[in-house]
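Internal ticket - ligand job 364, manganese (II) ion:
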Amino acid sequence: MRQHWQRRAVLLRQALPGIAPPLPLDELLQLAAEEDVESRLISAFSGRWRLQHGPFEPDALPPLTRKRWTLLVQGVDLHDDRAHALLERFRFVPDARVDDLMISVASDGGGVGPHTDSYDVFLVQVWGRRRWRVARPRPHALIPNLPLKMLADFEPEQEFVLDPGDILYLPPGWGHDGIAEGPCMTCSVGFRAPSRHEFLSALLADAADAIAGADPRFTDRGRAAARRPGELPADLRRQLSAWAHDWRPDARQVNEFIGRFLTEPKPQVWFDSADLPSPRAFAERAGRAGLRLDRRSRMLYRGRQLFINGEAVAADAPALQWLRTLADRRHLTAAAAQQALAHPICADLLRQWCSHGWLHINKA
Ligand SMILES: [Mn+2]
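stdout (structure tokens):
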């Protein structure tokens, strides 16, 4: 991390020896047929680039024996525990920076063309071989009139052929072009890095909701009759300017918003809620089997603050200890769950989260 992260491309030969696709090809294709799964088909049949958006029925896809196409399935970790388990191997990067696992399957010669991305990526080869050509960041021109952003002037500096188990790391902005050598599957571990615009638009929208309560309105009792009706009144400008300049979120509000913002589930995420179990039944079952976070749950903490799926949570010190453990390990063993449930606040939160579908009792 210290030497390479966000600095340079690195090839990690056999970083995951013996790795297999996290889910078999037919199951990946089934996911691509689902409405709530984001998928794209990119083909370059007879040299013509084409982009299509899913869902795709499996028999609507070209056969793997036909050259030069690739199917990209986004956010597979949200839909499949095995894909989520692969993403979890990258927790040497903080959860707040991890985004998703994309899986691409390609026929011989398939790829998306030379391009750059705004985020770091680990490209994990899980089946077959792929040839990657990469180049350091520099200003690029794009090929006009294509459905994809493709570099017009890509000049590769390094070239690697990845076998299953090999990983290529690329920092943001590096030019790269991956071409399948025979049918292959690649998992892309993607990261998130908020931009100032993204963060401030969300913060300002949140702040706007927060100040909706007591809402003073401009008044101008006793105003003289207007002689120049087109002129912007000075008192109106002064009042609006004062509202703009006097508004400032305090540190507590900003810190709380940061935690909610960074744990906000993706728009397509749905949790399956269930009835709230009785405290006794819950304690008994969770204490026997242990607890695990749902793969879609995002949970972070900072000091005494705790956030889960876009909500800030208040907890006392003994509860916090176990909730932080849950955030770090994403599960509590039966023994740990028993101790956690001994704290009333902790027990109540965990029970609520189970009924929201954010947390599950392990299968005994
Ligand atoms: Mn890319």
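Auto-summary: Residues 115, 117, 176 surround manganese (II) ion (CB under 6 Å). The longest helix spans residues 196-210.
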